[in-house]
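ESCALATION

Customer reports they have been waiting on this structure for their group meeting. Please prioritize. Original submission:
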Amino acid sequence: MEVRLLTSPAELGVYNAWVKSHPEGSLWQSLEWKRFQEALGRDVRIYAAMENDQIAASALVVIDRTSFGLSTWEIPRGPLMSEKLKVKSEKLLEQIMQDAKKERCLSLYLSPSTDQFFTFHFSLFTASGRHVYPEATRVIDLTLNDDALLAQMKPKGRYNIRLAEKHGVRVEASPDIDAFSALMKETADRDGFRPSGARTYLRFLEQLPQSFLLLAFQPPENNEKRPAEGLKDSAKSGEPQRPVAGLLGVIWGSTGIYYYGGSSKAHRELMAPYLLQWEAIRYCRDHGCTSYDLFGIAPEGTPDHPWASVSEFKAKFGGNVLTHPPEQEIILRPLTKALLTLKRRILG
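Update from on-call: job pushed to the front of the queue and completed.
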């Protein structure tokens, strides 16, 4: 058994099949995610523990270079392991840590789908305190028809969708990243978080196959209000475009994922974000998905969690709660990290 980097087209083809067939395979360990992260200027490596030319364990590692030649490494929703877990995962992690130390890595972050990996290496980890990949999410069953999907929602969710339709809100597929970025900035200013920025949203839409951008628009002021007529394409619409909410998502395998969302404070009475989510749900179902991931809520009993503010909104769409272990980190340069953390606190 050896651990090696997968780089050739043949090796990456084997890896692609491994991830897509693995029970815990996901967008974040996929070749699609690799291309997206590379388009953002990050290094991405794929490590694999090989046995008889078959993958026994793997990890897609995203490397973010920082100042002074330092870096952070993360393994999002990984590593992935076969049923023969312990020996393979230990050697895989040892090799990644060895390479990370050589390249002046401050910390290695891991967020597997289950805690099975952590049970073998518990002495190495400490809670990272980050919330990049959610510890809990809501997943909606898309094998249901419209009536059943609405029935499993909270009454307020159904009511707000119908209210948006009554107000004449319309939802359109759109390539307008600038409009979406403006909505995200407004949302970030209002809710106190840092948005990713137009470049990230554009790369997301360009580099991830089956990504989609939906925008919600208020009805034309001079037209009589009318019920929404379902999903349209803004490229074919001659009406002035004034988005009041936007949603950027992606389909991976049989799952649709709501990844980014923003809205304007103006016209909140239109309830556009509710109709926007409803159309995204139907869009993903129409494109062959069997589930829709609302991507991130606060775990139960954590009212101060950074994602608590969006949890109530997402709960109105129903679905089942799926949990993951909190992200962990291995601090490889504790003194350097402590000094940088202190510097950031002093400088604000």
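Sent to customer with the following note: The chain has ten helices and 16 strands.
Escalation resolved.
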